[in-house]
Amino acid sequence: MAYHTNLYVIQKCITRFKPTDMHEVKRLIGIHIIMSNLKYPRVRLYRQKHFEVNLVAQNMTRGRFFSLRNNLHIVDNNEIPNGNKDKFIKVRSLYTALQKKCNCLPIERNLCVDEQMVPFKGQLSIKQYMKGKPIKWGVKVFLLCVKSGTIYNILPFQGYYELDQDLIKTVGSGASVVLYLTQNVKPNRYFLFLGNFFSSFGLFERLQQLQIYAAGTIRTNWFANPPLLSDKEMRKLGRGTTFEVSTDVPGCNIGIVKWFDNKAVNLGSNFSASGEVDRVTRWDKKKNGLLILKGPK
Question: Cα–Cα distance between 265 and 196 in angstroms, integer?
C-alpha cells in the first residue's frame, strides 16, 4: 500500500508530498479503526480542543492525515486491464487478504447468511439504496457470520456474474450466494439459518447433499407452491395454528411448516419440521394483555 501510494503520487505529479512507508500506513489504518468506533460526526473533531483524541492527534498531523487518505492506493492504476468489469479491482487484493483471514477463523456451530450495507454516499457505480435497512445508502455485501458478529466469509455485491452462471440457472441467484459463502463449511457439523431471499427447494436439496443442516423463512412459490392451508383458513383456526408438509422425493427430506401468528409465517428446513410444541408469548390487542401461543420448536 505504501509503495503504490508513492507511485500514484509520482504518476500524478503531486508536489509537496513526503513519501510514506509501511509504518505510517499502519498508523493511518489504526486511526481509521479508532474513528470507526468513536464515530464523531466530523473528521476534524478528533483534533479539536474539547474533543481531541490523543491516539489520533499525537500519531499524525491533520494535514498529513488528509494528504495520505486522499492519495492512498493499493494497486497500480496503469496495470488495470482494458475492458475490466471488476468494480472492486482497486481494493481486490485487500479484500482477498481479509477473506483469507476470515476463512481461517474457527467456525461456531450456528451460522447465518445475510446481507449488510457498508455506509457510503459518495460517487460509486455499485452504490445502492435499500429502503428497509438501518443504513440505506452504501455498498451491499453478503456475509457468512454468527450471532456474535464474527464474519467467516464475505462477498461484495457488484452483480451475480462472479458466481457460477449454470448454478444460478439451476438454484437461483440467492442460493448461489449461499453455496459460494459455505464452500469451506465442513459437512455434518453446522446449522445454517437463512432469510427468504436465499431459501429455495434447490438450495435445501444441495445443502442436504453437502451435509449442511439448513433452516429459514421461505417464499412458497420457490418451493413449487406446496399444498399448505390458506391464510384465511388458518386465521379461522386462530393464532398459534401450525400446518406441516414434507417432501416425498427419495433421498430428499425437506419439511415446510406454516405457523399463524398475526400473519402467516412460512418456514423450511432440510433437517427438522415442526418438532415438539413450543410456547411463545405475544401481545393481544383485544384482551390488552399477554397471550401464550403454541408454536413449532
Answer: 11
Task: Please tell me the least confidently modeled range out of 177-181, 208-212, 273-277.
Answer: 273-277
- Residue 288 cell numbers, joined: 390488552
Question: Mean of the per-residue pLDDT values for the chain?
Answer: 89
Q: Which helix (H) or strand (E) holds 157?
A: none
In 131-212, DSSP assigns E strands to 137-145, 151-156, 191-194
Q: Cα–Cα distance between 265 and 220 in angstroms, integer?
A: 10
d(CA 156, CA 178): 13
How wide is the angle at C-alpha 218 spanned by C-alphas 283 and 197, nearest 5°?
110
CA 181 to CA 270: how far, in whole Å? Answer: 18
Which grid coordinates are listed for 37? 468506533
204-231: per-residue pLDDT in tens?
A: 999 999 999 999 999 988 888 888 888 8
pLDDT digits (tens, 9 = 90+) for 122-163: 888 889 888 888 888 999 999 999 988 899 999 999 888 888
How much is the pLDDT for 86? 86
* Distance (Å, whole) CA 293 – CA 36: 42
Backbone angles phi, psi at 280, to 5 degrees: -130, 150
State pTM to two decimals: 0.84
Whether residue 222 contacts residue 272, with contact meaning beta carbons closer than 8 Å, is answered with no
Please enumerate, as own/partner, the contacts of 72-75 that have beta carbons within 8 Å and a separation of 24 or more: 72/1, 72/5, 72/25, 72/28, 73/1, 73/4, 73/5, 73/7, 73/8, 74/1, 74/4, 75/4
d(C-alpha 237, C-alpha 214), whole Å: 29
Phi then psi dihedrals of residue 138, to 5 deg: 160, -165
Characterise 188 by phi-psi region: left (phi > 0), alpha (psi -120 to 50), beta (else): left
Residue 24, pLDDT score: 95
Of the pLDDT bands very low, low, confident and very high (cuts 50, 70, 90), residue 271 is: confident
The owner of cell 503520487 is: 9
